[in-house]
Amino acid sequence: MRxxxxxxxxxxxxxxxxxxxxxxxxxxxxxxxxxxxxxxLDLDAGFDADRDVLVLFGPSGSGKTTLLNMIAGLVQPDHxxxxxxxxxxxxxxxxxxxVDVPARHRGIGFVMQxxxxxxxxxxxxxxxxxxxxxxDRLTRAARLLELLGMxxxxxxxxxxxxxxxxxxxxxxxxxAAERRILLLDxxxxxxxxxLRERLQADLRRLRQELDLTIILVTHHLEDAFAIGDRLxxxxxxxxxxxxxxGDVFRRPATRGVAEIMGIRNLLSARVVAVGQAGLVLDWxxxxxxxxxxxxxxxxDDVTVYIRPDDVKIVYxxxxxxxxVAHNVFDARVTAHLESAASRVLRVELGNGQEVEVRFPxxxxxxxxxEPGAVVRVALRREGLAVLQSVHRA
Amino acid sequence: MSPLQLSGLVTVVATTAIVAVGVPLAWxxxxxxLPGGVLIETLILLPLVLPPSVVGYYLLMGLGExxxxxxxxxxxxxTWQGAAVASAVxxxxxxxxxxxAAFASVDAALEDAAxxxxxxxxxxFTRVTLPLARRGLAAGVVLAAARAFGExxxxxxxxxxxxxxxxxxxxxxxxxxxxxxxxxxHTLVLLTSVLAFLSLLLVARLERDSVMVRPxxxxxxxxP
Lengths: 393, 224
Fold this sequence. Notes:
Helix content of chain B: over 70%
Radius of gyration of chain A: 25 Å
Structural class of chain B: mainly alpha
Distance between the termini of chain B: 64 Å
Low-confidence stretches of chain A: 1-25, 389-393
Largest sheet of chain A: 6 strands, mixed
Order of helices and strands of chain A: HEEEHEEEEHHHEHEHEEHHEEEEEEEEEE
Oligomer: heterodimer
Radius of gyration of chain B: 21 Å
Largest interface: A-B, 40 and 28 residues
Structural class of chain A: alpha+beta
Shape of chain A: globular
Shape of chain B: globular
Number of helices of chain A: 9
Helix content of chain A: 10-25%
Number of strands of chain B: 0
Strand order of the largest sheet of chain A: 7-8-9-3-10-11
Number of helices of chain B: 10
Strand content of chain A: 25-35%
Mean pLDDT of chain B: 89
Largest sheet of chain B: none
């Protein structure tokens, strides 16, 4: 999980905070910086969010749910501070007054894992629950159910509802008290693909309409792309990287982040030449040419990443284009996978390393690509990225 | 008062006391990490396994002239109130045991959800915990009441068997048999048996229903 070479994964705190993209207001809707020791996990994370969707992404046991519980006031950090809408909701430090606002006063909407609907109440009663004794509680709850297309199930108990219906009731309940901060813990986990997409669309619409700040925990990258504005990658209790979803995916800061996100084609190489013309790396005997990078010096061990789409097959009988001008190697196809829209090859290069190649299903039709076939591949120079820690970027 | 009336009075008073003490106690034992919780629970359950004469002996000491209650002027020995105390002490463990199980079966995530929804701890208890535990609690109350109704040994030691004043149904049966009044004994035994049978039937119903009220797992792959 650690990057090779001397680079250390970033502690989320100071340096990463500087990279968060918020909408610019001086007091974000949510800011936290907390520590907690919890069994084998040493949680130490900080981030803020303001009227956007921040996706907490990471393997199970990385502390995602605990972070949500801390924001909601259900779990106490050992140390740190949580600020909601400019108000300190929790503070415990070596000096100064401690603050711990109870969960009921934090003004948070929370869709918990498995939804936690009250089984002895109907859908309508569940949604009306946070409205207390307000005289119009049932009308307001009914309107929310309608907003989520659940009005015909108002009288049903949770046990009579499907997973997707329960999810929507839970979402309506979380929205009922007109909370501005919404926490969602694996909200799509039990749903099949079409329903998942529909609910993601619902959520995008509600975020716009109600001007919400949403923190969403998931371990499905698809969820992050579908509704996330920013992505925070959590690894062993630390935030390894945070930034706009596309950026984090295209430019993972460390090998650890790339591996957590399931990114292929991580190459371990050593810098052999630096200069104006670009970098030259030695990758187990093959020379890789990259654009210049002033942060590196000769002898550095680096992890290099290339998206499978940036690995090109070279037509043997055509003049080489710019895209395949560099890093052209002989390779042997070891596996061939096909999906509806694209094909994925695994090829083994002369140095014994494998890379993944992805291309549209109709490309390279004249070239035989069955396993065992010998091809030439080009690792696009501009597509090769040295993963670096955020603080050095 | 007739033995049936006395038994009714003793049972109602004892059951009220059992509910007042037992429900909070069961909740504490199920939900809070009390210091010495295991010890407290063991002490409360002790009357389940001790011979009634031993329980009666302790009560005799506690309620007697040398006991703490007499010191403040409360004298319960050989009164129906004393019989109620004995019944409450032997009935309490049954409510605490099934009440603790009922509270423990309530998913703590539901209580957390209620807190996030803005509920105070009291509202969490009355609107979520109690309704979800109520079948199991009711079963515990019925069992405890039935046990209180049938109390014999400890009652005999604390309240005696004074006809019209402390002679409850079980004591009256013993008395009738001792005196050879078998016709009376037959009637009373039949009455007691029917009541006991009906209360067990009620418990079985409550326990079956409580299974159906438990939180349901999320159904995966559900369509809209």
